[in-house]
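Appendix B, record 7
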Amino acid sequence: MKVEDLIERNNDLRPGLNKENKEFYDDFLVYVRTTSWLKDDIQVEEQLLAILQDILEAQKNGESARDYFGQSPKLVADNLLKKLPNDGVSFAKIILYTFFGYLAITFLPTMTVPGKPIDIGAYVVSAMYMTMAILLIVRTIGTLVYRYKASKLAGWLKNVLGILAGMLLLFPAFAMIYWLKTPVRINLDGTLGIFVIILFLLGLAVYNKTAKQGFLSKPVFFYIIFSAIIGILTRLPILSGMLENKTGQIILAVLILLACFISTGMLMWQAHRDKKDDDQ
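Structure tokens (predicted):
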């Protein structure tokens, strides 16, 4: 089975867990997936599925997941990962997916407004930093998932501290894009810009198809596609002069804001749907 098939099967079976077992397995799942970078994806997902099936079987017999394992879930996960062989290819894929995913999210939207040279160097440096930051965040989530539950801090305070820590890590990446100046700049107006956008979209389609479980969510993918379409339209000869007058600039700003609102709405609806599914 492919990784996507194993994940889908896991998602189909998890609703069968009772509340106690679901909480136990969800923490176990997060910990394993966020600390198994050097392990083969297929083997990791096979083990996660097998453990889920064991918990479901024990549940039928009136035994809880915690009783079934007889020890802390973190220790079970650590022992499981130690038995799996390391796979450098999987780790390299994660780095590449993160790097190019960030570039897609930040680079294509800036292509909506032609006429200004784009600092490629700043984007590359920002993407390198962001890749390391995201890997650090994911790793931290994995290592703290059980400490977070054991902490005596109020839930709202935990969330606030987590958001602030995330913002502190993410801010430098966006600051680099706007304030860092490098000699690697290129003007992507006209036909060249259209060609680069189309090439980027094709690469993004392949990237998202091959990435684990679709690396980019549909709302983010929508925003990128919308930005790319605007970028192409503003470079067409018939519309290239649109940005030279105030009316055209206002229309462009409205379209970009509309895309942001729609994407945000889609993200909120998706989060609400996922939470609803988890509560069932």
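Remarks on this record: The radius of gyration is 22 Å. The first helix runs from residue 3 to 13.
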